[in-house]
From TrEMBL:
<dbReference type="Pfam" id="PF03929">
    <property type="entry name" value="PepSY_TM"/>
</dbReference>
<protein>
    <submittedName>
        <fullName>PepSY-associated TM helix domain protein</fullName>
    </submittedName>
</protein>
<keyword id="KW-1133">Transmembrane helix</keyword>
<keyword id="KW-0812">Transmembrane</keyword>
<dbReference type="InterPro" id="IPR005625">
    <property type="entry name" value="PepSY-ass_TM"/>
</dbReference>
<feature type="transmembrane region" description="Helical">
    <location>
        <begin position="12"/>
        <end position="30"/>
    </location>
</feature>
<feature type="transmembrane region" description="Helical">
    <location>
        <begin position="176"/>
        <end position="196"/>
    </location>
</feature>
<feature type="transmembrane region" description="Helical">
    <location>
        <begin position="318"/>
        <end position="344"/>
    </location>
</feature>
<keyword id="KW-0472">Membrane</keyword>
<feature type="transmembrane region" description="Helical">
    <location>
        <begin position="128"/>
        <end position="149"/>
    </location>
</feature>
Length: 362
């Protein structure tokens, strides 16, 4: 038990602040669309395929100003988001008219906060660090519950420590941790599996990782470069005709020389915000190459697609967003106070008492 206590304290002291940062940024991102203040952000989502097709044609027509990707409006955010290869971007209304531009993510708080939470401003290396931090967080939950069990009779519910002394903070940390453990477990498990896909075997059984990779892989790459003039409107019409009940979510130019333009859609049965229903078009001609219906994916893959909506509170409405906000704020409080008590409020060591020599009895 002493070893568990030591590992729990030292790991928390070393990585607690990172978990606190992830918790706070996650709590803010849950409500990102509400605090992203841009003209027309509150417009209702357009479902008319002709207007969507015309807006896409208008945005993609000029090869010199063509974005790398277009994310279409959703029910809670009424703008299109355009991202360019040089790191810049823009918001456009649902007619395709640009209402705001930026040259880098630092000009938009919702963009750099997203990058902080998902990559720590360090691309794939930062994502790996976040995955390790999530696994450490799971270790905290398990060991914390073990350590709490010894003192369960002294449990007391408090949002804040009774005093800012080390014993009071440690007690608050222990009791608050056991209350929010289920929420933290949801946040950390989903986060860890999204970063380290092989961990999906823990949730969906042996072979799940390979099955997910196969099911989500696109068609074989094609030796094709994007033509200067393509019927972008026709691609949108074709996509909607293939899946009439699906919501148009994004259009992306070829990546890693795939030679394929990707259109993602979201069918009513899907929780994933951008869906996994996908259509691929040839980059040189705009011809339909392949289509994938997310409803027909294997059960393990459907389960995997539920992880991000749960992690980011993209389902359940305001009630679930508040639940995940509580999870993030609790992680922030637990991580911050853990680091503070470990490094700055540690008990002072008492000097060893000197033994007094007793006078000899004559």
């Amino acid at each position: 038990m002493r070893l568990i206590d030591t590992l729990h304290r030292w790991t928390g002291g070393l990585i607690g602040l990172l978990l606190a940062l992830l918790g706070l940024s996650g709590a803010l991102l849950v409500h990102k669309n509400a605090w992203t203040l841009v003209p027309h952000a509150g417009d209702p989502r357009v479902e008319d395929v002709r207007q969507l097709a015309e807006a896409t044609q208008r945005i993609m027509a000029d090869p010199a100003a063509r974005p790398q990707s277009v994310t279409y409006a959703s029910d809670d955010f009424g703008l299109l988001k355009l991202l360019f290869r040089d790191g810049g971007g823009a918001y456009a209304d649902q007619h395709g008219a640009v209402v705001m531009r930026w040259s880098g993510q630092w000009e938009r708080p919702e963009l750099w906060l997203f990058d902080l939470h998902h990559h720590l401003f360090a691309a794939d290396a930062g994502e790996w660090v976040i995955g390790v931090a999530a696994i450490c967080g799971l270790f905290f939950i398990v060991t914390g519950l073990i350590l709490w069990w010894r003192t369960r009779r002294t449990f007391e519910w408090r949002l804040w420590p009774a005093r800012m002394s080390r014993p009071a903070i440690v007690r608050h940390h222990r009791d608050l941790g056991v209350v929010v453990a289920p929420l933290l477990l949801l946040s950390l498990v989903t986060g860890a599996v999204l970063v380290f896909r092989p961990m999906a075997v823990l949730l969906f059984g042996p072979g799940a990782h390979a099955q997910i990779d196969r099911a989500l892989a696109g068609p074989p790459p094609r030796d094709a470069k994007p033509a200067e003039r393509l019927d972008w409107a026709g691609m949108i019409v074709t996509a909607k005709a293939r899946f009439p009940d699906a919501e148009l979510r994004s259009l992306t130019l070829p990546r890693k020389k795939s030679g394929l333009i990707t259109v993602r859609m979201r069918r009513p049965q899907e929780w994933l915000p951008n869906g996994r229903t996908t259509i691929w078009f040839a980059a040189d001609s705009g011809a339909l190459v392949a289509a994938r219906d997310a409803v027909m994916l294997p059960t393990a893959v459907k389960g995997y697609n539920l992880l991000y909506p749960l992690h980011a509170a993209k389902v359940g409405g305001l009630a679930f967003r508040l639940v995940m906000t509580l999870s993030g704020l609790a992680l922030t409080l637990l991580g911050t106070l853990a680091v503070w008590t470990f490094w700055f409020r540690r008990p002072a060591r008492r000097p060893a008492s000197r033994l007094r020599r007793r006078p000899a009895v004559s």
